[in-house]
Design brief:
It is built from 4 helices and 9 strands; from the N terminus they run ββββαββαααβββ. The chain is of the alpha+beta class and about 220 residues long. Strands 1, 2, 3, 4, 5 and 6 form a 6-stranded antiparallel beta sheet that branches. A 3-stranded antiparallel beta sheet has the order 7-8-9, with no helix packed on it. It is globular and about 50 Å long.
C-alpha cells in the first residue's frame, strides 16, 4: 500500500480541546504490514469540525473489531447509535452522526489526535471556547487553563480556584497533560451522575462512557 501524505504537506494546527464533530466517512481498510499488535483489519473514520469558521478533518484509525471493549463499539456508542455488541454493525451508520471529540497534540509539530469520544449530551461537559494549554514553546499555558476551568465552573474564576483547591490539586509546575486531566475532572464534576464504567481496549483501565473519567482498578461491583 503506498504511503499517502496530506495534500497540503503540512500538519494542521488544532488547539487542544473538545469539539463538536460530524462523522463524514467510515471506511474499512487492510494493512499490508500488521501493526505492533499483529492487526491488519482497520476502520478509518473521518470527523469534521469547525474552529472559528475554519473546517478541519481528522482521520482516526481503529481496529476492525466488535465487542463492548472495542474502540469501534465505544465510538458508535458515543455517536448515539446504541450499538448491540452481539449483533453485526454497519459502519455506514456512523456517517452523519454528531459526537464530541477531544483533540490533543502530544508534541509540537506532530499530527493532532482524537483521544476521546463523548456523547453530545454528556452531562456536565459544555462546548467551551477552545484555549490552547500549550504555549508556542510547548510549555503549559496556565492562563488558558484557568480561563477554561472558569468556563467549566459557571464562568467564575474564583469558583474554579475553590473547586481545584477542594480537589487537593496544585497547578503551578504541572504538565500540559496533567492540566487536561484536571479540566476533564472539572467537566465531569459539574453534574454528578452514576458512572457507566467500561474497560478500555487494552484492558488496563476503566472509563466512564458518559463523562470520560478513568480509574485504574474496576469497581468491586464489576469484578
Amino acid at each position: 500500500m503506498p504511503l499517502v501524505q496530506p495534500s497540503s504537506g503540512e500538519v494542521p494546527i488544532v488547539p487542544d480541546g473538545m469539539y463538536l464533530a460530524t462523522v463524514k466517512a467510515a471506511k474499512a481498510i487492510s494493512l499490508e504490514t500488521p501493526d505492533q499488535f499483529g492487526k491488519t483489519e482497520k476502520i478509518d473514520i473521518d470527523v469534521e469540525f469547525e474552529i472559528e469558521g475554519d473546517m478541519f478533518t481528522l482521520g482516526p484509525r481503529v481496529n476492525q473489531a466488535w465487542s463492548e471493549n472495542a474502540s469501534l463499539f465505544q465510538i458508535a456508542d458515543a455517536c448515539g447509535l446504541h450499538p448491540n455488541p452481539n449483533a453485526a454493525f454497519d459502519t455506514d451508520d456512523l456517517i452523519g452522526t454528531q459526537v464530541k471529540i477531544v483533540v490533543e497534540t502530544k508534541e509540537v509539530g506532530k499530527w493532532p489526535r482524537v483521544t476521546r469520544w463523548l456523547r453530545v449530551n454528556t452531562p456536565g461537559l459544555k462546548q467551551v471556547e477552545v484555549l490552547s494549554l500549550s504555549l508556542p514553546d510547548g510549555k503549559p499555558n496556565y492562563d488558558s487553563f484557568w480561563k477554561r476551568a472558569a468556563q467549566l465552573c459557571g464562568g467564575s474564576r474564583s469558583a474554579a480556584v475553590d473547586t481545584v483547591a477542594a480537589m487537593n490539586i496544585s497547578i503551578p509546575g504541572q504538565s500540559v497533560e496533567f492540566l487536561e486531566t484536571v479540566l476533564a475532572k472539572l467537566g465531569g464534576a459539574q453534574k454528578p451522575h452514576d458512572h457507566d464504567w467500561r474497560y478500555t481496549p487494552d484492558g488496563t483501565q476503566m472509563v466512564c462512557r458518559d463523562c470520560g473519567d478513568r480509574q485504574q482498578e474496576p469497581k468491586a461491583a464489576l469484578v
